[in-house]
Amino acid sequence: MANTKTQNKKTAMPVTTKEKAVTQSPSAQLFGRENYKWMLIGLVVMAIGFFLMAGGKSSDPNVFQDKDVYSTTRITIAPILIIAGLIIEIFAIMKKPE
Question: Taking the mean position of all CA atoms in its chain, how far away is CA 63?
């Protein structure tokens, strides 16, 4: 009787069709190649926005130059790029992989 129990432990369990579908299905990945491409594009757009927003350092700390700090690039264009990058990221996450 002990001999039959050890034989049962040594035999492999059959794989069910449900387990085969999960392990062999290519759609089981969360994101596809195109999703990652859109995520990278979104990150690049956000990085450009942050780069444009940075700076404004004055050579003389006692002088405040408002034209450098309050420029159109820093106040308008950079935040629009950052928001656009976030929207691209949301699109990349929500898009179904093919």
Answer: 41
